[in-house]
Amino acid sequence: MLDKSHCFSKQTHFAIDLSKWQKTVDLMAGLYNSASxxxxxxxNEEFNxxxxxxxxxxxxxxxxxxxxxxxxFCRKVIETDQWLYSGNPSAxxxxxxxxxxxxxxxxxxxxxxxxxxxxxxxxxxxxxxxKKSDYDENMIELLGQLALLIEADLKHMNDLEEAKVLAITxxxxxxxxxxxxxxxxxQCLKSALRAKFNSALVYLDIDNLKEVNDHFGHQxxxxxxxxxxxxxxxxxxxxxLYARLGGDEFVILLQDVSVExxxxxxxxxxxxxxQILSDSILSNTxxxxxxxxxxxxxxGYKIFEASDISDIEARLSKADALMYANKALKKSxxxxxxxx
Length: 340
Fold this sequence. Notes:
Layout: H1 18-31, E1 36-43, E2 46-52, E3 65-67, H2 73-80, E4 84-86, H3 99-102, E5 108-115, E6 121-129, H4 137-168, H5 178-195, E7 199-207, H6 209-216, H7 218-235, E8 241-246, E9 249-255, H8 259-280, E10 296-304, H9 312-339
Antiparallel strand pairs: 1-2, 1-6, 2-3, 4-5, 5-6, 7-9, 7-10, 8-9
């Protein structure tokens, strides 16, 4: 998802043309005949100058910063979420004691709030001068229009981030899809190789999902699939990578593991899924012809030594084969039980 704490002055986002922002603040300084035109970002309780004009006498440099806690014009703008204009703050009781006026060079300020697409504050767009000003309504409105252009850039960035997430995320479960897993897994394996960690690949498949779909409809089957995604979120570690590969098949890549760790993860997932089945499926009389053992998840896993250099596709193939062996064993055991 979009990282709103991203510092634009340190590392420009790929979707933002900072040179365009630079041209905007240079234009602002020229149009308003001011010492400074700037875009200020609010992040981590601090204001930070992302772009500032190249105009003579500009006292604000890129990366200039000051705390949110101070009595400043930018703070007033974001607190009220309204534009602010003071053409002669030295003559105003509200501002004459402000540090940037009393001890600093600010003698005029015009600023508009900037918003993320969800309307959360991004920062401010400001025209600041070392001399008094007398901007008319048209000049004030003009800065408001420029602020809308900056917000359009932020929306463009947000839209691209959402598109990236959608491309690698499974819509039903909210976890990674096959593309996301195959994109991220090789990096995890490289990290494990460098750190000399054993890793494990766990392959999972929901048993007899067709039976559930036939009796209750695909909506109930989708709920089971989605519930398994939620179980992974609850039971897996932050360092684990998990995904829905498609249909009712899932995979988990665990790093720095032992047999005991993998067995513990698998057991917790199995128990949590069995509880969901008990609450939603197994008590239903329409499935009285089925045994509880007919439902659940089949799991296969394989632990790979740190020195193993096999790629992710080869590892998936091995874990997949073990999962199907587990499924076949469960079916055989269930059939023998029914025959007896």
